[in-house]
Amino acid sequence: MILPDFVPAEYHQALSDAMDLYEIDAPNRAFAFLANCAHETAGFTRLVENLNYSPQRLAAVFPRRFTAAETVDFAHDEQRIAERIYGARMGNGAEGTGDGFAYRGRGFLMLTGRNQYRYIGRHIGEPLEDQPDRAAIPGVAALVAADYWASKGCNLMADAGRWDAITRAINGGMLGHEERLAWQARFANAWRDK
Question: 48: which DSSP letter?
Answer without folding.
Answer: B
